Queue: 2 jobs
Job 1
Amino acid sequence: MAQRAKRDDPPTPDPGTKLRGRALGIDIGGSGVKAALVDLATGELASERIREKTPHPATPDAVAAVTASVVARTLQGTRVGKGLAVGCGLPGVIKDGRLQTTANIDPTWLDISAEEVIGAAIDRPVLAINDADAAGIAEVTYGAARGEMGTVLVLTIGTGIGSALFIDGRLVPNTELGHLELHGKDAETRVSGASRERRTIGWKRWSLEFDEYLDRMEAYLWPDLIILGGGVSKEMARFEKSLTSRAPVRPAIHLNAAGIIGAAYAAASAAPSAGPARSASPARSASPARSASARPAGPSAAAMEAKTSPAQPS
Ligand code: BGC
């Protein structure tokens, strides 16, 4: 008999789910660890965005210590309960709350549960999600791809290249399209933002190569819309004329806050108090291994938080 596939991806928010209240987003990247509270009704930041440098080597202990400091500073003086939903974006494939790939973070993350390590550091349950998936969720929910149906591809071009693919607003988690081959090399080593600087090439040369990369995306996926996020999207005026894709290409709206916003939204929509989003996303409870890791808040904690920042459909 055919075996059922094990579903251990982070839960994908239901398209169009409206939430309110606040949640905490954390974005752990190759160069910075950032966090902020997010207003779930608007997608705006509800606190100052705090950033500290990612330690090198970016081992779990070192990153957890920096994350604890960033979160403590973010929450200082705020009145949030224990049930605050917390989402954390990390630069790799996430299955069962664990990193499965570590292109831009220390490989010792492969041995451990990211949800448990970050959860223990900040003493709150944490939902771990790929950083580009988080940024994509922010753009689809509150940003440049809001309300767009069809196939939407969000690319984050920073230290690496991250990808988030949406079909009618629903995320296909953990796509790793930054690692497609381009001229015999891993694409992100040629055309990420960091690679452009490392290779000291100008925007013209970079944009011609990046256009080839987008050609590959079009050949395989035929997206209806492409959103560019990450550092280079701020510079789109410098290179958009070189892009020849059939699909329109738009810059992301939330830029360097997108990862924070999307992680917060994903965690809140997976939390027990989120109602429809949770009941329509059974992936979490389908995996027995999940119960051992730091979960989104249980009902009592969620109820406590609801007094100050309810994460519920409005
Ligand atoms: C990782 C992706 C990540 C991207 C952006 C890539 O190297 O493989 O998972 O989304 O960098 O951080």
Job 2
Amino acid sequence: MAVNTPPRLGFEYAPAPEATDHFQLAGVYKLFLDGEFVAPASEQHLATINPATEETLAEVSVANEADVDRAVKAARKAFATWSKLPGSTRARYLFRISRIIQERARELAIVESMDGGKPIKESRDVDIPIAAAHFHYYAGWADKLEWAFPNRKASPIGVAGQIIPWNFPLLMLAWKIAPALACGNTVVLKPARTTPLTALLFAQICQQAELPPGVVNIVTGISSTGAAMVAHPDIDKIAFTGSTDVGKYIMRTTAGTRKRLTLELGGKSANIVFDDAPLDQAVEGIINGIFFNQGHVCCAGSRLLVQESIAAPFLDKLRARMARLRVGNPLDKNTDIGAINSADQLQTIKEYVESGITEGAEIFQPPCELPKRGFWFPPTVFSNVSQSHRIAREEIFGPVLSTLTFRTPEEAVAKANNTPYGLAAGIWTDKGSQILWMAQHLNAGVVWANTYNRFDPTSPFGGYKESGFGREGGWHGLHPYLELH
Ligand code: NAD
Ligand code: MN
């Protein structure tokens, strides 16, 4: 099948970059332990860079075992008083944190985009507002735990060790810290190596909110920092979001200990388009499903399943839309696709795309000029993909979509479920009955219908199979942080 390149638009957008002169990053960041910024016992630091420019933004501390131990001791000490506070008092702190996140939203959005590479319109309109909303939402639960579980008494579990990835740094922090604190636990949180900065700004926010010392401790660092948390005997619960491989390692390590565990891991989610779907709307949804945050999204709709009868015209529309995507400076308000988070991740994406070509799938990339410095990858769609191809089976975590076709709803379900993962799915159809039938048969924690990548603090999120277990968000998100008697 010949692939026609759609014509370029006849006009260009003028640059519209966010200003960065209204806040100042510190040159070097210490660890946040027991309410203070303190130098790491390790005496080690690492640079966090801007992946769009490769410039160093700041040096952050690398916490070692001794540092993690200090953090856990601070959290343990704080637990004695924090867990005894009336829920309404804990709620007040969480509401205050939510308000300060809103007040500092612009600074947080810009730092998130600089540290991780995501477009400013996403950090500004999605990451930061939803992070604030999580604190607001769980603040509302703090004084209702007595009634939330009829005939049962709810008490906090203790010190939670929380390990998060680099794709939604502040948002994943909020998903983890807000329910833990609402339930009366204290936390030690470890941000990802490439995106520590908004967690350190959050530490300042905890000080601003006069949160009691030790309730939140932030240990920046590397994988050994996370491993030290997993191994620490006085952590009661590990909450992990990240890759399936590290999730399996953590599950093995905590097996046979008293530690509780929740895992939010990878995905290979299917976005399924039926022939009766409103096609232009579906194209927007497929684009959002795979190119939002450069495809660095655990629930990315990375497998497009399109009904065979409309596959050719649908792919034409999709390619035409892809040619309009603006790739470039994450701080430009018109940018649709920002920088790939790291050189390592870019390498991974390139290897997968090579494998797709070698295994015989057909590639389309619109012509687009990529900046000279930094880490970039153009939006990419593969057609003629078979279920055995690596690009159909493995999580790429980049702006790369693999297209398969189906004829009947049964075949769509069989193909969508033919994966070790089970995080999310999307259905595009005009028929309500089709949506309900599909949702019942899809093995996925979240099923979106005629939309994709919608997040809300009131709605639980989590996976089946190798996508992990446990839910974050909503009433369900309280469970991992409570002992129910
Ligand atoms: P990763 O597993 O490499 O790292 C995640 C975190 O774990 C980082 O903070 C890292 O430093 C830490 N870590 C690494 N090795 C460790 C070890 N041995 N012990 C303890 N901690 C360790 O994953 P990543 O590359 O940062 O993130 C991308 C992955 O995260 C993708 O697979 C994606 O699907 C997944 N993810 C899942 C969700 C979800 O909610 N299900 C959300 C976002 C990302
Ligand atoms: Mn960075």
